[in-house]
Amino acid sequence: MPISYRKLFDLLESRNLSATYWLRQRGIHPATVNKLRKNERVNTDTISELCRILECQPGDIMEYVEE
Question: What integer pLDDT is reported at residue 48 of this predicted model?
Answer without folding.
Answer: 97
